[in-house]
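(Structure overview)
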Amino acid sequence: MRRVITGLLALTLALITAAAMKNADVLAGNCRSVSLRYHQPLSAGQVEAAEEKQPGLTFWCEETAELNGGWRRAEATVLLFKGDASLVLGADCVAGSLPAPLDSGGCAVSTALAWQLFGSEDAVGLTLSHEKRGYTVRGVFESEEPMALLPVAEASFTAVELPAEAETSGDPVGWTDARLVQSGLPEPDWRLYTALPAALARLLAWLPLLFGAVVLVAALARRAMALPFPTRDGIFFALLGAAALALPVFFSVWPSWLTPSRWSDFSWWSQTAGQLKEIAEAFLCAPPSGRDLTTKIGLLTQTGLAFLQCVLCEVLRCRLRPRPPLREIPEGNA
């Protein structure tokens, strides 16, 4: 019975680990840009000038509006965008796909809005109207809130998405500063570096495995100390080789800009601490819109899964620990 329970715990740990890896991959796929948020809407001249100086930017804003689906009307949260829809919403569609960047007549709706307007989630190909302009539904995404993603040519844009590049992970703050100068955009009120939550999610997915590896290595090293010379050194060499192979995997997940070029550079530590403080304040204080809520829920889910993984690893460690031999009680003391 003990082995059965241990096997079930190990199977549960494997399933939770797979779910954590999948959640981290989904979160990383949704976080592919640096988001600039403004209190005051950008003017049409600022938007046009930024598009000319730096193509590929995505502008968007959020508002509440009434949508008409033909026979039914519904009030919904509308995300008006100009550019790449996937950088605004950050959600996979359960049916169809998000409108392409040059698709000015397509839109995407949430499952809740599809039920309110059309009475079914099978809404791909149907039409709706917003301010006397018609759109064709290209995709339906999962959400309990009535939402719609609509492309527009002009709007009171309050957010800009900078698509991430290979250089973004090296120095996201410096990369964003350079893009702001290049595009001519004003300094935003908040900068949301979405790559950091994605990296944190991947670290949380690997953390329990690292915990289990450390416990296993410590147990093997403790037992190897009592072995003779050739076997003991062979085990230590194998453990060091496994650690060397695991380091590239760890550093592929760890953000490179959080690794100092010189460990004795004390100015780097204070500068990085200030940057992390600003990033955390923007992540917590910026008004949530677009994919923000999805990102925060995904990060909280990742934290909960990591906690469960650590608990199961500790339970398995206790169950797999060898039991001390039973002491026989002398007959005279019984």
Remarks:
- The chain has a mean pLDDT of 84.
- Residues 195-224 form the longest helix (30 residues).
